[in-house]
Amino acid sequence: MTESPKVVAVCGSLRDDSSTRVVLAHVMAAAKASGAQTSVIDLREYDLPLYNGDKKDAGDAQKLRENIKVADSIVLGTPIYHGSIASPLKTALDYCGFDEFEDKPVGLVTVAGGRFPTPSLLHLRTICVWLRAVPLSHQVGIPNISSVIEDGQLVDNTALERAEKLGDKIVEYSYLLDNQRTDPPTIG
């Protein structure tokens, strides 16, 4: 890893006024304040057709994989749609594999217009485990999202604190897991 870790966020919402993007901005600002180099993958800027195993490099799949692979850690953000994650994020993750995610810390962010977005957090966590990533125990799930955002900013102190804590934690785990990868413990 470089002197400062690279944290990449992937925004699974395509909406112009995305509340997911607002929360991710707070997470990434905290990560940057903790010393990370940060960038956001905006899936609106990628041509990613529905995944077809016979066409693994369709559209911008290779560009997406390259932009995720260089990350030391990743933050995934999505609105909850029908009890799960948004299809743009699922499609993007389908194009990825172990090369992009294995042994990397992953922060999870989900937002909901109504009830707490527990199912989407669980689905993201499951995907991360299948990709051999390390989903952090601290995660951000925000219900009733329209009530905590004003003028493109989180205005609820609890939601803001959770988002900022995730930004801090993703940087902390970037260092921790990098040390474990380069200096494995001696057994025996």
Automatic annotation (TrEMBL):
One Gene Ontology molecular-function label: oxidoreductase activity
Cofactor: [4Fe-4S] cluster
Pfam families registered for this protein in UniProt: FMN_red
Enzyme's top EC category: oxidoreductase
Domain NADPH-dependent FMN reductase-like: 5-144
Top-level division of the source organism's lineage: Archaea
EC number: 1.-.-.-
Keywords: Oxidoreductase
Family membership noted in the UniProt record: Belongs to the SsuE family. Isf subfamily.
UniProt name for this protein: NADPH-dependent FMN reductase
Lineage: Archaea, Methanobacteriati, Methanobacteriota, Stenosarchaea group, Halobacteria
